[in-house]
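Bench notes, afternoon.
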Amino acid sequence: MNWMLTRMVVASLLLMQLTGCMSPILRYCDFETGSISMVARGSTKSTHEEGPAIHIEETYAATPLEGEETFHGASLIVHYPASNDNIAQFMRHFDESLTSRAQELGIDLNVRGLLRVIELEEMPSLFTFELQTDEDLDGHFMALPFRVWMEKPDGKVQRSNCGSFWYESSTIHLISHELAEFSLILAPQGMILGDMSFRWRLLRFRFSNGTRWFRDGVAEHLAMLVKADMLGDEEAAAQAEFEGGARLDEVGGAIFRWNNLTSADELSRSYYPASRALVERIVDQNPPGTLAAIMDQSRQHKHVDGRRLGRIIKQVTGRAPKDYLTE
């Protein structure tokens, strides 16, 4: 990858809205050694005003801290409290679902999750974090916290029970989505180009590649499959599919102009489910393995922008992306 393209790809990893009650995470990449070091920042506010304010600022390494054990999976490395075997079993299930679902869709998860399980006894009023991956890590990782509660906390955030602990189901969605989208943007072959914004002296350049509907749609589709595996909530999945279709009907062709350069919260709330619905229409209206075939065709090219992506989808399915706007 040449220097200019590297800078453009780095610049393309812009502010994106996350699921649940998470505020946006800023993502950065460091290509100095050919590997990626990511810094993740985020915050969660709660209606539980009496809880403590918690801030975490750490560098996640491959080795655990004292009192921790580590689960090494195909897609996740997880540091967790040594005393909690249920968490290890849960993370093994999460890793297996994430890995198998990504393979089923033809997504090469070249970015792995580096997670640290944080035990909390009560819901904090404010939780903020700034995390990065250790430079000595071999490969591409994204560091994220995974909060668990030893007792069910008050609050309206959707939570799930897993034996001895409670966790936010939106965290499963978030991790699956982010790893999938980063893997598409940073693929060594078939890179789905992100939207670009960079400066040169006093000039600022912005360029939309027209791929966000696909990047976020595929990532949302994967996240929903993994979440369904973990929660077994078919009714919620059916409701999400119905709502996504309604959003797509509302958004229409504007979905192809959606980008990371001018994203507003209200816009994102409509466009995330709409992008997922569009990808799922492509999946549902074609034979099994269609999305994987699109990914395979993408890997025949070094980089894929919106126009090339449209040609690939038409080559594989016989229809252009816009033809799937109506069922």
